[in-house]
Amino acid sequence: MSEKNIFKQIIDGDIPADILHEDDKCLAFRDVAPQAPVHVLVIPKKEIVSLDHLDDEDQGLIGHLYVIIRNLARDLDIAEAGYRVIVNCGNNGGQSVAHLHFHLLGGRPLVWPPG
User: Fold this and answer.
1) What is the number of other CB atoms lying within 10 angstroms of the CB of residue 38?
2) Distance CA 63, CA 32 (A)
3) Is residue 4 packed enough to be buried (19+ CB in 10 Å), middle (13-18) or exposed (0-12)?
4) Are the beta carbons of 44 and 24 closer than 8 angstroms?
5) Contact 20, 28 (CB under 8 A)
6) Count of H helices and E strands in the chain?
């Protein structure tokens, strides 16, 4: 049996997190190493390795995640000024945890290109 990654441990309640939203499909929590004043991770509860591992039937789940991200941006008062949503995919894309996750960043001007 393989070891659970950190996001699965957070979903299962094995590791505490500053949770901002939870429902039957996803979990949103503050990043422990924030890169902006607001840095929230939004993850599906379904174990999906990366964006590249989505199945066609995951379309509804991804739409749900984006609605939650929009709602969080509003709730955290960053929607009006603007925010960024990032999904890293694979090693060269900067993905550090093998569980699909969305970064919601805001609260300061964000530069482009990001790096």
Assistant:
1) 19
2) 25
3) middle
4) no
5) yes
6) 2, 5
Q: Which of 39, 64, 101, 103 is catalytic?
A: 101
Residue 101 annotated as catalytic: yes
CATH of 6-106 among 3.40.190.10, 1.20.58.100, 3.30.559.10, 3.30.428.10: 3.30.428.10
Specify the pairing of strand 83-86 against strand 102-106: antiparallel
Q: What is the value of pTM for the model shown?
A: 0.95
Q: Domain spans of the chain?
A: 6-106
Q: How far apart are CA 11 and CA 24, in angstroms?
A: 11
pLDDT tens digits, one per residue of 78-105:
999 999 999 999 999 999 999 999 999 9
